[in-house]
Design brief:
Belongs to the aspartyl/asparaginyl beta-hydroxylase family. This is Lipid A hydroxylase LpxO. InterPro entries: Asp/Arg/Pro-Hydrxlase, Asp/Asn_beta-hydroxylase, IPNS-like_sf, Lipid_A_LpxO-like. Pfam families: Asp_Arg_Hydrox (PF05118). This protein is of the alpha+beta class. The protein has a domain of 197 residues: B-lactam Antibiotic, Isopenicillin N Synthase, Chain (Jelly Rolls, Sandwich), CATH 2.60.120.330. The chain has 11 helices and 10 strands. The strands form 2 sheets. A 6-stranded antiparallel sheet has the order 1-8-5-10-3-2. A 4-stranded antiparallel sheet has the order 4-9-6-7, with no helix packed on it. The longest helix has 22 residues. It is globular, with a radius of gyration of 20 Å. The chain starts with a helix and ends with a helix.
Length: 300
Amino acid sequence: MKWLILAIFVGCAAYIHLRGRVRLRLSRQITDHSTFMAPLNVLMYACSRVPATRYIAVDEFPELAPLRERWQEIREEALALRAAQQIKASDKYNDVGFNSFFRRGWKRFYLKWYDDAHPSAATLCPRTTELLRSIPSVKAAMFAELPPGSELRKHRDPYAGSLRYHLGLVTPGDDRCYIEVDGERYSWRDGESVMFDETYIHRAENATERDRIILFCDVERPMKYRWAAALNRFVARKFVAAAASPNMDGDATGGLNRAFASFYRVRERAKRLRKTRKKLYYTLKFGLLGALALAIFWPW
C-alpha cells in the first residue's frame, strides 16, 4: 500500500511539473508547495467544471458581472486607499503567501480572506466589501499595486481549488505592464477583467512609468460533483484560511502567519548557507527529504 501511495504521489507530482509549457527548475519544483499538494490538485483538475486551461473565459462566472459593472466605484475606494498609503507591503513577517513579493515592489490591501471582510476593509472600503459579500464564490480579495519598475518572478500558487480574477482599476494601458501565464501574456486595462489558473507558472512586470492597481480575487473553482465541492471548501476553510494576513491592528491573523516569523528566521539562515556553501546546502536539503521519504516508506 505504501508503494502504491508513493507511485500515485510521484505520478501526480510529475504531472504538475510537466503541465504547461513553462516549468520550474527540477531542483526547485521538488520542494515547491505545489509538489506536496499534487495529488489533491490533480483531483481538483479532474473534477473541474470549467476547462483546466491557462486562461478561462470570464463569462463562465456570471456572478462576477457586478464587479465589472461597478468598477469605477471600486476604483474610487482603491484610489482613496492609495492616497492614504494603506495599499502597502507588510511591515512584519505575517504574510506567508506573498512575503517574497514585497521585495520587488508589490503592495496589497486585503478586503477579505476566506471569511468575511477584515474590519479595516469594512471601514475603509464599505462599498467594495459589501459588493464582495454579495458574491459567495469570491473567497479572497485585495487591492494589489504593482508600481513602476516592479516585477513578480516566476511562481505558481500551491492549491488548485480557486481561480484568479483580475479587474483593472488604475492601469498604464500599455503592453509593457502585463502578467504572463504559462508563457501567454495579458496586459491590464481599466475596467477590463481576466480569469486565469494560478497553478500554472506565471509572472508579472510593470516596465512603464505609471502605477497599476487591480482588484485581485480568488474565486472558488466550480466543480462537477457535490462531494468535490465539499472537499474543496473543507480544505479552504481549514488550511487556506490559516494564511489570513492583517492590514492593521484589529484584523485577523491566521495560524500560519502567526508561526511565520519563527519559520522565516530558519529560512534566512538556510538562504545564507546556500550563498556561502551551496554544495552543503543542497546535500542537507535533499538528504533531509530522502530521510523523510525513507522513514515513511521503509518496510519497518
